[in-house]
Amino acid sequence: MRDFALPAALIAVLWAATMVLPAYHEGNLARIMLLATYAMGYNIAFGYTGLLSLGHALFFGAGMYAAGLAAEYGGVPAGPGLALGLLGGGAMALAVGLLALRTTGVSFLIVTMMFAQAGYLTILYYTPVTRGEEGIVLASALRRIGPLDLSADDTRYLVALAIFAAGLVVQAALVRSRFGRVMVAMRENEERSRMLGYSPYRVKLIALVISGLYAGLAGAAYGLLFGYVGAGFAAIQNSIAPLLWVLLGGAGTVLGPFLGTAAMFYLTDLASTITTATLMVTGVALLILVLFAPKGVLGTIRDRWAPWLP
Amino acid sequence: MGFGAFFLLASLEGLVSAAVLALTAAGLSLVFGVMRVVNVAHGEFFMLGAVLASFVTSFLPGPPALGFLAALVIAPCLVATIAALSDRLILKRLNYDPDATIVATIGLLYIFQQAALSFYGPEARPVPAPFSIRVQLPWFGYSGYKLAVIAAAVVVLAGLWLFLTRTRAGLVMRATQIDRETATAFGIDTGRVYAGVFALGAGLAALAAVLIVPIQQAHYLMGHDPLLLSFITVIIGGLGSLRGTLVAALVIGLSDGIISVFFSPTLAKIIATLLVALVLVFRPQGLFGGAKT
Question: Phi, psi (5° rounding) for residue A251?
Answer without folding.
Answer: -70, 140
